[in-house]
């Protein structure tokens, strides 16, 4: 079996994470090139992992006919453009979320992918977490009957820098977007309406740049089922990521894993450790699995487990939540994108 | 110490529960009379517990100068009237929730109580559950800092009969009302606005009588904190009652207790038993504690732990949720009762 | 149905506990008299609970033909004698553990019971704990197949006074005796050999009076299955009572219940409360159930769930453990009582 | 920093596991050669991981002056000999457990290591498990005060082939040996005496070859503290690995991790998945950490975290347990090795 030859575009934190997994953890693929606007970063990553080529721009990767697939890990504003170029170059594409913050750009990128007939998988890695995947499997298996209520709690350990928040598109497009994807993934159906509440309780600076840091979003699914997501930019006890699907015959819950199983009992009670710090630790396994799945889709010409449409809808949901918060009323997804009627 | 002499008005399920606790579990009080419109019921209860007097109406109790306090456990539509009469008779009053479904009636009853200077405690028993009381204590102690997000899950094991639902005032006034009280109790502050989503997923008959059986209610507190309550009329795995308060320095959670601690492990995994069936089992301890507290307030002339105002506000919240569901928009409590501005 | 008329012999801590349960929690029985060598104690208990008669010795109870059954809750050295007398008087007998510390006395008492044809139930209350009863039920149901290994952890929150320890018969006859009973109860078979290790780590005074405060006892059952009990006189985190039966198809475990379900999460980790303090709290339910069962055996003339033989064998096991510790070798039960061959 | 050059002796399951970790997970080291008596196996492993050299015997590795360290992963009967040869060749040594089943061979090997002044680390990987390491840290920190009772449960998912059991040295030297090491590691002190009970309940064939498959071993530590280990060759619910240290001020427990956190609740109760299957999954992290630690000791010339003596004493304990089982009495370690007095 020939190894799939992969180029990596973007050598930042997430690019490095994927590159390391590709080189160290995933058999059957070969990382052959890295590109980053900061050429030094590309070179550093390539050297550290023994990847033969490093470039200051993606074009040598896109122009190399021996390369089968690219991982787009560059900044969000470049994703759609690189997807279009990679599709035109006939490369299969793994792209980090979100595809873009502009819906027209997303549509153009998805159209390019469709024309080219290449595979596009969007980086909603949480679907590949063993616990969430098992929750989805149980729901799909009918173990809880028809789903009635979805609950997602998703809290970061600490807010990102204000400069990042400014360009992030706001909490719903930056943070809740993962939960919007999780909601569709777990329930196996579409959301038709959202109602968002938000407030600034963690850091007033976040409010000053026009965002909120604490939010509760209510979802209405097409079947009539309800959902609720709560987010915070800061949980002192670690990265809090829980889901629950309640249905006519039961419930599936996923609680947080712990860094270790030691518990101390004393006259003050029982103590166990805080949660894993953040996504790199919590979702380590999910990153390996999503890339493994992408590569097996490339190899077998299969439909990817997270499609371009799966990449787009959470962005629509993010805009609906944003409008809901601004206007203080529930907002239908079809108000944002009439094609989602 | 002279025993407090207590009359019980209403010999249905909850009247019987209080009577048994009074006779068997709570020292320092004496049940001296029971009244019920079904005189047989009053007599049966009195005989079973060795209570000396039984009547077909409350007036002999209210007219007996040796009686210090009454427990109003009759049907909801009689609560306000009996409160007024008992207050005029100078009796201290423990009244089951809700005081009434009509806000004017509530106001009249509370005014009568105030004029008479008697103690009125409303039966929001969940406050006296050892786990929820500890959660409140931890929040008040500052252990989690300023509260940011409240989550309450409250699901019954099975819906009540349709005939009951018809006259119940709807899910928000019948079921969520307990969660509205819990929200105020745990957060220690008032709710200013609610947004309610509801749906009929458990039993279409519930929809036919104009109610919903599955609901998610978002709360906005005066401090800006957010809350969310999810309700269902039917959880197959038992009576599901969980709360969580998340704040700037941590989180307090209360999970469900289990009927026993035995766990079976086999090649299929680990099995533990379903939850306690319903409120009689789950909240057994809370009923003893609420009555004990009421009696100690009577004895010491103290402010009761659940006041008349605490009895009224959840009714206002219920109407706000109802209007929110009907009109598809967030509703301020001040729209229902302008005095709550 | 006529109420069973019960006399209580012994008005100390455990006598009071049974008397309260009898009066307040158990229908179908009537406490008609209390006796205690300290007549004041008998009178105090009787008055507090509305029991009509109080005596300074048991003979008026034993001589009262209207009394059906007695609860023997006096000091251990009087148990066997009162059993014989009560049996001769034709009373059914509930007797606290141990029947006696002298095996011949036990045999005489059991013979008297047999001659009289009365019911004797011994107070191994832990069998009636809902969790342990469920564990036994699961083992008996075949859920774990043939049992292979039993583990019992049984640790008290604090040692009793030294004066008590001196006359207690030592840790194996005072404390482990409950675990010996639990071992037979859970496994449904007899122990043939024990090996005991013991040490003084909690309080040197315990060593000075010839006892140990920390012990590990290995059991060999007739089927070849193995068991292990570990005991300590002092667990700072509360009364630690856990059991586990491991077998060919799985395992049943019972963990400790908690006083409440509130958990606090902070940057230091998760905190939950210490265990219930001691047996009165931990086994509250079991005391109600054992007496209820005894009374239903009396009513229906059934074999009691804890027989005289069940009362004797743990004493034999206690002596075997004692000899094992003294002689540093495994000891067969048949060495202590040749009839157990 | 120059990479440490490592040769791997033995290309079986454990050799492969270490080789993969070395190549993929551990920076700062280079796997330069693999040797196995089955040269094909060495070559296969080397090719799969890009290791440049493969041999049918260890001598080319031992004779290569550019190699700093060797991992001895060959069959147990070759360990001591290869340790001696590697020490004479001046290589630092990581050797799988046990060093040997013959105590004189162990002593000779340790003497050779001492003469050569090289580092020898023995492969008791469980010490590096994050949960057990945390338990040890808590005990050492004084969090539970002076340790009183140690409990270890260690059960395999299924017995190895009978042909393996025949040459394994028996359950105490093959399986309990890990628990003997864990006992010393957690308690931070030596065992002076053991008492072993054993039985054949899993598979009669194991009895036919003179071994037991179910065992309980009681330990007495030098401080007087007690310990107990229970072992089974077959737990249907997975690889069961739990420890508990109970002490004067509290307790540390380590429960089993689960493969995922999803829990299903239904009217039958709560279900969670069986345990991780076996050591490769359960201790995956520990293998990476032990090798990382070994390499850092080599780099910094430090005392290894598991010494030659740590490798020897569990073998002595295994023989003491064996004799205890054969002779039905507690056996002192000094009876096996008088130097351990």
Chain-wise SSE layout:
The structure is a homotetramer of 341-residue chains.
Chain A: E1 4-9, H1 13-25, E2 29-35, H2 39-49, E3 53-55, H3 59-62, E4 69-72, H4 76-88, E5 92-95, H5 103-116, E6 120-122, H6 130-140, E7 147-155, H7 162-167, H8 171-174, H9 176-187, E8 191-199, H10 204-208, E9 214-221, E10 226-232, E11 240-247, E12 250-254, E13 262-266, E14 269-272, H11 279-282, H12 284-300, H13 308-327, E15 331-332, H14 333-336
Parallel strand pairs in A: 1-2, 1-4, 2-3, 4-5, 5-6, 7-10
Antiparallel strand pairs in A: 7-11, 8-9, 8-15, 9-10, 11-12, 13-14
The first-level CATH class of the largest domain in chain A is given as Alpha Beta
CATH architecture of the largest domain in chain A, by name, is 2-Layer Sandwich
State the separation between the terminal residues of chain A, measured CA to CA.
44 Å
Q: How is the quaternary structure best described?
A: homotetramer
Biggest β-sheet description of chain A = 7 strands, mixed
Specify the overall morphology of chain A: globular
Output the radius of gyration of chain A.
20 Å
User: How much helix is in the residues of chain A?
Assistant: 40-55%
Strand order of the largest sheet of chain A: 12-11-7-10-9-8-15
Which regions of chain A contain 5 or more consecutive residues with pLDDT less than 50?
none
CATH superfamily of the largest domain in chain A: Dihydrodipicolinate Reductase, domain 2
- The total beta strand count of chain A reads 15
Our estimate of the beta-strand percent of chain A is 15-25%
Q: Helix-strand pattern of chain A, N to C?
A: EHEHEHEHEHEHEHHHEHEEEEEEHHHEH
Q: How many helix segments of chain A?
A: 14
How many domain modules of chain A?
Answer: 2
Greatest interface: A-B, 38 and 38 residues
The overall pLDDT of chain A, averaged over residues, is 97
């Amino acid at each position: 079996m020939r190894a799939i030859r992969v180029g990596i575009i973007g050598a930042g934190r997430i690019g490095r994470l994927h590159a390391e997994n590709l080189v160290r953890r995933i058999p059957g693929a070969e990382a052959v090139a890295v590109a980053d606007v900061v050429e030094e970063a590309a070179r550093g990553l390539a050297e550290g992992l023994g990847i033969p080529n490093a470039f200051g721009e993606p074009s040598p990767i896109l122009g190399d006919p021996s390369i089968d697939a690219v991982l787009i890990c560059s900044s969000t504003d470049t994703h759609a453009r690189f997807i279009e170029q990679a599709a035109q170059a006939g490369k299969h594409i793994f792209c980090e979320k979100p595809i873009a913050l502009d819906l027209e750009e997303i549509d153009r990128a998805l159209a390019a992918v469709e024309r080219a007939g290449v595979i596009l998988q969007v980086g909603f890695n949480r679907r590949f977490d063993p616990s969430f995947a098992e929750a989805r499997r149980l729901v799909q298996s009918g173990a809880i009957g028809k789903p009635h209520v979805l609950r997602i709690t998703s809290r970061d350990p600490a807010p990102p820098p204000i400069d990042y928040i400014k360009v992030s598109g706001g909490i719903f497009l930056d943070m809740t977007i993962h939960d919007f994807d999780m909601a569709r993934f777990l329930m196996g159906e579409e959301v038709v309406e959202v109602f968002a509440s938000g407030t600034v309780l963690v850091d007033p600076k976040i409010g000053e740049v026009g965002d909120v840091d604490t939010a509760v979003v209510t979802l209405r699914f097409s079947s009539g089922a309800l959902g609720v997501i709560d987010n915070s930019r800061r949980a002192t006890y670690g990265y809090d990521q829980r889901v629950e699907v309640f249905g006519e015959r039961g419930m599936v819950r996923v609680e947080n894993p712990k860094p270790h199983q030691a518990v101390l009992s004393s006259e003050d009670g029982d103590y166990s450790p805080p949660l894993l710090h953040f996504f790199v630790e919590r979702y380590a396994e999910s990153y390996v699995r999503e890339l493994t799945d992408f590569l097996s889709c490339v190899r077998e010409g299969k439909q990817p487990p997270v499609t371009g449409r799966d990449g787009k809808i959470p962005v629509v949901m993010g805009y609906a939540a944003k409008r809901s918060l601004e206007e203080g009323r529930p907002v239908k997804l079809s108000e944002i994108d009439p094609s989602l009627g």
